[in-house]
Specification:
By secondary structure, the chain is an alpha+beta fold. The protein has two domains: about 230 residues, 3-Layer(aba) Sandwich (Rossmann fold), CATH 3.40.50; about 110 residues, OB fold (Dihydrolipoamide Acetyltransferase, E2P) (Beta Barrel), CATH 2.40.50. About 25% of the residues lie in helices and about 35% in strands. It contains eight helices and 20 strands. A six-stranded mixed sheet has the order 6-7-8-3-9-10, sandwiched between helices. A five-stranded antiparallel sheet has the order 13-12-11-14-20, with no helix packed on it. The longest helix has 18 residues. It binds adenosine-5'-triphosphate and magnesium ion. Adenosine-5'-triphosphate binds next to helix 1. The site of magnesium ion has 4 residues, from helix 1.
Length: about 350
């Protein structure tokens, strides 16, 4: 199994003012799926192409299990890339497309035929060897592209948005197929996507990039619970941001003093964040609820979404979002004053941007 290490990996395309990828340092866990996530144009495809050997880095190193592969040609690296738009050979049959890599490596025809048949079974296209790519659906073509990549038994599998051209139903199927095959073969895999939910569903680790730079590399859960910046939190759907001044466990905010658990950020200005589902909304009764970290707020809007209800509330001059149980929709009306509880455990602090 191959460990992939990127060291200060950079790419500035000719005539470009800004680097497409800037000093990327990453060690990809062996045999796992890493999602390379980020908005369009942030450099994801460029990273894959450099690993595959299709684009030469302008700076930095790429190592497979501790050895630099920069001097190896693409076909000798043992990394295969499945492209964003699957480029099948239109005049070859499905079988010839899938077997192409083996034929190029001089494998005998009988073995190629046997392996092609097995691969097509794996991607659930058994018996379609003789079709042409244009006689297949988009989802089937994508599976042919996957089979064509896997047949050469790569050490590293590079998937560039393999689900982007599929409808919701096929996406789910293809996702399951990739996960099953990846688990079976335990190939070190990089899965590029700009969809955070897809990254959560597929990956053991996520590397999030903005404009060519790595922002955070961590297990999916950390992006919800421990984002490193306001930008990362926003990319993962964070909406509640409250400026604060940290004094130990005390946070001075426009909503009053709130208390947090110990946090590694130094005292001083910080940005407090809390996920909408972690805020608790309670009726404002004659006796205030017990406990601390409770502020007054007014209901501005409520959206019933079946599985949950989303409240927009105003506290002081801040607008916050709260997600609650669907039955809570009946407990509150617009304009009502409520208590909003910030559980200390769920408060997370970010550097002030
Ligand atoms: N061959 C090239 N020559 C010059 N600039 C390029 C080239 N390929 C990509 N770029 C630029 O480099 C940046 C990163 O492109 P890249 O294709 O890696 O982004 P991406 O994250 O894969 O985007 P998307 O999600 O849209 O596929 C973009 O600004 C793009 O315009
Ligand atoms: Mg791309």
């Amino acid at each position: 199994m191959t460990q992939v290490t990127l060291h200060q990996l950079s790419q500035t395309y000719p005539q470009a003012n800004l680097p497409a990828v800037h000093r990327l340092n990453l060690t990809l866990p062996t045999g796992q799926i890493t999602a390379l996530l980020g908005p369009s144009g942030c450099g994801k495809t460029t990273v894959l192409k450099m690993i595959a050997g299709l684009v030469e880095p302008t700076e930095g190193d790429i190592q497979f299990s501790g050895k630099s592969v920069l001097n190896l040609l693409a076909e000798r690296r043992g990394a295969v890339m499945v492209f964003q738009s699957h480029l099948l050979f239109p005049y070859m049959s499905v079988g010839e497309n899938v077997g192409f890599g083996l034929k190029m490596r001089g494998v005998d025809a009988a073995t190629v035929r046997r392996r092609v048949a097995t691969m097509l079974e794996w991607v659930q296209l058994g018996g379609l060897e003789n079709r042409r790519p244009k006689q297949l659906s988009g989802g089937q073509q994508q599976r042919v592209a996957l089979a064509r990549a896997l047949i050469v038994e790569p050490q590293v599998l590079l998937l560039d948005e393999p689900l982007s051209n599929l409808d919701a139903h096929l996406r789910g199927e293809m996702r399951d197929l990739i996960l099953t095959i990846q688990r079976k073969l335990a190939i070190t895999t990089i899965f590029v996507t700009h969809d955070q939910e897809e990254a959560m569903l597929m990956a053991d680790q996520i590397a999030l990039m903005f404009v060519g730079r790595l922002q955070q590399f961590a297990p999916p859960r950390d992006f919800y619970e421990r984002p490193v910046s306001v930008g990362v939190a926003r990319f993962f759907g964070g909406v509640n941001f409250i400026p604060a001044t940290k004094h130990g466990l005390q946070l001075e905010t426009p909503l009053g003093i709130l208390h947090s658990l110990p946090h590694t950020l130094p005292d001083g200005p910080v940005m407090l964040t809390i996920r909408p589902e972690n805020l608790n909304i309670k009726p404002h009764g004659p006796t205030p609820p017990a406990g601390s970290n409770i502020v007054l707020a007014t209901i501005q809007q409520q959206l019933y979404l079946g599985t949950h209800v989303r409240f927009t509330v105003q506290a002081n001059n801040l607008i916050l979002e709260v997600v609650a149980e669907p039955r809570q929709v009946d407990q509150f009306r617009l304009g009502q004053t409520v208590h909003l509880e910030f559980p200390a455990l769920q408060i997370w602090l970010l550097p002030m941007p």
